[in-house]
Amino acid sequence: MEKxxxxxxxxxxxxxxxxLSPGEVEVDTFAPDGSQRRFFRLRTADGRTAVAILPPSDDxxxxxxxRAAWHIGHHLFRAGAxxxxxxxxxxQSGLLACExxxxxxxxxxxxxxxLSPQVRSYYRESVGLLARMQVRGARGFDTSWCWDTxxxxxxxxxxxxxxxxxxxxxxxxxxxxxxxxxxxEECRRLADRVAAVDRGWFLHRDFQSRNIMVCDNRVRFxxxxxxxxxxxxxxxxxxxxxxxxxxxxxxxEELVDHYLATLDEYVPCDxxxxxxxxxxxxxxxxxxxxxxxxxxxxxRGKVFFLRFIFPALATLNTLLAKGTAAGYxxxxxxxxxxxxxxxxxxxxxxxx
Length: 352
Description:
- This protein is an alpha+beta fold.
- It folds into two domains: about 5-100, Phosphorylase Kinase, domain 1 (2-Layer Sandwich); about 105-350, Aminoglycoside phosphotransferase (APH), C-terminal lobe (Aminoglycoside 3'-phosphotransferase, Chain: A, domain 2), CATH 3.90.1200.
- Helices cover about 50% and strands about 10% of the residues.
- It has eleven helices and nine strands.
- The strands form three sheets. The chain has a five-stranded antiparallel sheet, sandwiched between helices. A two-stranded antiparallel sheet has the order 6-9.
- Helix 4 packs parallel to helix 8 (about 250-265).
- This is Aminoglycoside phosphotransferase domain-containing protein.
- InterPro entries: Aminoglycoside_PTrfase (IPR002575), Kinase-like_dom_sf (IPR011009).
- Pfam families: APH (PF01636).
- It comes from Desulfolithobacter dissulfuricans.
């Protein structure tokens, strides 16, 4: 970390009540997943730690993103959501200081221990706290905090989800030929259907196992800076169809039940309607996942993401086979075409 930023972070921490100077701080860098931001862990002489997050230099959108993280994070923390405490923010550079939640992600525990009783417990805790955060986080939420879009809407679905899938995966990565007009008509109808869902709840929009930390035997949520108002089922679908974890269908159903039972403590919800909305939103989220993995793996060179493309395609194929999702035959055919193309490619392309 450059000296000027270290001095700024120390000023932010002193304002938050810490007693330290730059010469007393050890700084380690750690790498994010798909973000262009830089992450640092600071350790003081007495063993206290904090995390500093810095956007790329002269990145105006990164500075707006940091501002969103500051305001949304404070709002969620006050609402009782299990997010890190924020210590300070420098509006000029976008530098943000926050609580250090360690380095153990829910994804790490799934990878090393499978669905052990403890891991299952963390998932149940996560979906219960998600329901509470969505309801309480919507109260008093100011959409002017959002750096991207204030609502999850039809334009976002078509541009950042179905359009992302068609461009980044189907065209740029797999180089597929398909009937674009028919596929796009189905994508528009899917977006119209989802746009009719109640979208007045707090939406994290990247709620998955690599954004859930486990600290002091509790789950904590990070990467909420893309928060906005949206539908309830989207974040739940994000977690349950998460390709990093590959949760079995039976456990997914168990978690939906637990989520609905918790949600009922806060707001009335018809389970049958919710489950129908869930399938449609899971399809939308799956399209976004595939676009992102193809873009990050192919365009950004972050090949880690490529190995998860086929599992995500398999999940999308399963979702499109459900009766609730009838009416999208060309999209399902395209997904199968993607699966065949991925299987035909050398294993070395994906195995990193």
